[in-house]
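Example 3.2
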Amino acid sequence: MVRRRDRARGFTLVEVIVVLVILAILAAIAIPALTGYITTAQERACQVNISGLRRELMAEEIYQTGGQGKLTSPELQQIADVSDFVCAQGGPYKVSRSAGGDVRIQCVVHNISSFGFDMAGALSGLFENGDSELQTVLKNFTAMNKHIDSSSPNGTNVKKVVAALKKQGFDMEGEGVNTWSYQGQGSGRYILYWTTENIADYQVGQSMRVMRYNSNLGTYTAGYVTVGTETLEGQSYKVLSYNTGWQEYTATPQTDSDKKNFDTISGVFEKMPDAP
């Protein structure tokens, strides 16, 4: 009797199809996630380059004008066009200067703007991880309803805030934050305003576009604040009149959900005109 050899059993068509379907499902899940990680990394690298370009532009402006003037949008763009700070994906950086003097940088590929600094988030870190002296200063200003202004003639506390943020890796100058005001509201609450525009370029009574953070609500809002004056130690200086001069920007709706997201509101800020 002749025995027949058992042949190795292959995959059936149904089994092959099942495997292919499973692989397709896994690919559908993994590829978008991987693409998202790559995109996020590219955007973060682009934001770092934009910050570096801003520092280069400001340094070149000081060099060319002796610190006594401002370069025009075309002049700034010429510097950006030959800068080593470029988008890795080949997108050009568009540079412009607003009527208020604010320098804006935008990546055409990623649609990332130059205003990506969450000062409120950085300050929250100072409350939790900052040096004890600065924590005491901020808490005292909060409890006593006092305010710290970047334009204050007594810059001791201003320098402490800037230095502490920089120690944590948050460089306000590099991010283009030229004006800010920390307003204590009592009971551990505060309101923070910050902007890329320089209050020195504005007249009293004019409005500046700003980012606003309300610690009590945990919300960000883009809007305008009127420039006013105060006197400290016999010196008059310009301040953001937050008590009477705040106006939310309404041309672009800012929902309650939007206001919980810094990136969303900073995008609104970038598109705002210089004055209401």
